[in-house]
Amino acid sequence: MQNFTFTIDDLGFHGRDLSRPECVCCLASGVVVVSNGDGGVSRIDQDGTTRHITAPDGAHKPMTNGFAITQQGDFLLADLSSEGGVWKLQADGTCEPFITEVDGETLPSTNFVGVDAKNRVWATVSTRHSPRTLAYRKHIADGYIVLSDERGTRIVADGVGYTNEAIVNPAGDFLVVNETMARRTSRFRIRDDGSLGPRETVTDYGEGVYPDGLAFDEEGAFWMTSVLSNRLIRVTPDGGQTLVFEDSDPDMLAVCEAAYQGGTLGPEHMGKVVSKLAKSISSIAFGGPDRRTGYLGNLLDNRIYTFKSPVAGAVPSHWGVTV
Questions:
Q1: Fewer Cβ in 10 A, N or C end of the chain?
Q2: What is the pTM of this model?
């Protein structure tokens, strides 16, 4: 793929009346599922019909951030609320705890959960600070990664700089992780027993980049979304970066940059819209019949965004699942 970029004029829109659609998963059937901050997920059919699947009133309603789809068609939800942990949601709205404790620690506010091709569950905790906004600092690295498999549930990496999405690469040999406040994407070699090797830097990002979501394409590169600056960056296997899309206000972004560098970045910055149209893009998934439609989740809109990609996305573990 060479020199591909697009602008806000090239964006399409998908879904409506969504609640904090932070994370996106696409299925071979054409169904798109997004996070629902009101306690579950939202299922969007090809014709745009939307069904909200949420925990019932009176039960705990996870504030879904990242989520995963299991081979059984259930949803695993990373709960960003103070309750934290990973929850399992069924299609009928039944919602129950899935991971609430690991290595003697209660799981706090949890950022992301993914299922790989071997049905291993990977979950990320961005920080041990409470509230988590106290860790919007470049010098704080107390996030960690949890693995749950047939051997049990345990912490497999610690000391991460605000752990965000963590995806197993298509070859299955590395866990690739966005460290939002450290401004880098890292990787860990996955050993046969599921333990992780030492952290390796894939690429560092510069001013205004806050890496959040990522997805691989069929050429072995991954596409990374930056919240706040609304940037989409494609990273090749050698760490090379191409800025594919940006929609940000330079003046407001400069204010946020000064706060980040000065150690005062807070929710008053992260919750701002510093763009013409996109509202803090946070995740990316590839869908459509040829996986050449990119879907962008976000933090602050009630719909998600789409674009046409010149390269197909890699096949995710949930691609053929029916929900």
A1: N
A2: 0.97
How far are the Cα atoms of 117, 181, 205, 292 from residue 85, in angstroms, in the given order? Answer: 22, 21, 29, 33
Identify the helix (H) or strand (E) that includes residue 269. Answer: helix 267-270
What is the rounded distance in angstroms from the CA atom of residue 323 to the CA atom of residue 317?
A: 14
* C-alpha distance from residue 74 to each of 95, 98, 115, 203 (Å): 10, 12, 11, 34
Going from N- to C-terminal start, the domains of the chain cover: 8-308
Q: Read off the pLDDT band of 5 (50, 70, 90).
A: very high
Give the start-end residues of each E strand in 161-301: 163-168, 174-179, 184-190, 196-204, 211-216, 222-226, 231-235, 241-246, 281-287, 293-298
CA–CA gap between residue 163 and residue 159 (Å, rounded): 9
Average pLDDT over residues 227-255: 96
> Residue 147 forms beta bridges with which residues?
122, 154
Torsional sign, CA 228, 231, 234, 240: negative
Cα(140)–Cα(89) distance, rounded to whole angstroms? 32
Do residues 231 and 209 make contact, with C-beta atoms less than 8 angstroms apart? yes
Q: If you ran DSSP here, which 8-state letter would residue 134 be given?
A: G
Per-residue pLDDT tens for 89-129? 999 999 999 999 999 999 999 999 999 999 999 999 999 99
Q: In terms of Cα–Cα distance, which of 140, 74, 146 is closest to 112? A: 146
Q: How crowded is residue 1: how many other Cβ atoms within 10 Å of its Cβ?
A: 14
Q: What would the CATH number be for the domain defined by 8-308? A: 2.120.10.30
Distance CA 92, CA 159 (A): 38
Question: Quick one: how far is CA 318 from the chain centroid?
Answer: 15
Nearest to 318 by CA among 62, 19, 118, 69: 69
Dist CA 221 CA 313 (whole Å): 9
Determine the Cα–Cα distance for residues 139 and 123; give it in Å rounded to an integer.
22
